[in-house]
Amino acid sequence: MSVLVTGGAGFIGSHCCVDLATHGVDVVVVDDHSNSSPRALDRVAELVGVEIPSYEIDVRDPAELESVFAAHDIDAVIHFAARKAVGESVAMPIEYYESNVGGLLNLLRTMRAHEVDRLVFSSSCSIYGDADDVPILEDTPPRPTNPYARTKWMGEQILADACAVETAWSVMALRYFNPVGAHESGRIGEDPRGIPNNLMPYLTQLAVGRLHELSVFGDDYPTVDGTGVRDYIHVMDVVEGHRVALEHMTSPGFRSLNLGTGTGTSVLQLLAAFTEVCGRELPYRIVARRPGDVAELVADPERAAVELGWRARRDVLDMCRDAWRFQQENPGGYEPA
């Protein structure tokens, strides 16, 4: 099988490339490196012992994307390429719709032209918004609360409509919760550009001295300690879910599945776990809630277990240990310290 991975140099994408290549899949990558480093793909090649063909392009560029499909006999696509920060999406909605919705539409047009009919779509738990019941089932009505989440929900609607017409297409939207951690080797991990928008990379950069204090956005939510609760899932569990999804795409149609652990962890609980792993107290302060955030997002992962035979296998301490290992061995991320 030959699989195109869009956004393949990013955090989840690079780990997905390692998992796929390790299991004998031929991988092709496109990535514009707007929030990733090409050095990540050098590390991927080092880990798997195979050079990964990669193209520095924007998936919104029809001619460039067409050239990649023309050069490779693609069997399936895993689509990660997207903007992904909740807070940034509130400040930059137009850019988020243009990137996330526009990029998906161009990809689908190119897939159709080349008769590629299998797609795994990177969706998000954020589409559920402030759900009434937790843990969250796949049939929970979507109530996205920010532009990022709305782009993901729009993406799923587009894909469902496309599958109703393209009757040979098999599409799976994986709604994963909060991917964190890193490859156990310490060679690849999460290295966002600029100040991290997500909690775990903020903690690792704080512990290594690149940042000076954690801002905890709100301590008045109706949760165990007043801080936001999320279902953190190890990135390697997430990418294993993508590979297994590809293996189960044997019939046409559109499906959505949660990828999560089913266990919620608050901001302060994750801070405590990471403190235990790194062996030092990390400074933090409570600030106002962040626009677009919700109190609690925790998955009910049973449908993925039944339909794919997949379950998350790693716990929060594994996530913290692997994320910290990557940051310790790469204090400047993929760039020189």
Spell out the key features of this protein:
337 residues, alpha/beta, Rossmann fold, seven-stranded parallel sheet, three-stranded mixed sheet, globular
Present the secondary structure layout:
Layout: E1 2-6, H1 11-22, E2 26-30, H2 39-48, E3 54-55, H3 62-71, E4 76-79, H4 86-91, H5 93-113, E5 118-124, H6 147-165, E6 170-176, E7 178-180, H7 199-208, E8 214-217, E9 229-230, E10 232-234, H8 235-247, E11 253-259, E12 265-266, H9 267-278, E13 284-287, E14 296-297, H10 302-308, H11 316-329
Parallel strand pairs: 1-2, 1-4, 2-3, 4-5, 5-6, 6-11, 7-10, 8-13, 9-14
Antiparallel strand pairs: 9-12
Helix pairs in contact: 1-2, 1-8, 3-5, 5-6, 7-9, 7-11, 9-11
Please state the overall shape, judged from the principal axes of the Cα atoms: globular
String of helices and strands: EHEHEHEHHEHEEHEEEHEEHEEHH
* CATH structural class: Alpha Beta
Q: Number of folding domains?
A: 1
**What separation lies between the terminal Cα atoms?**
38 Å
- Structure classification: alpha/beta
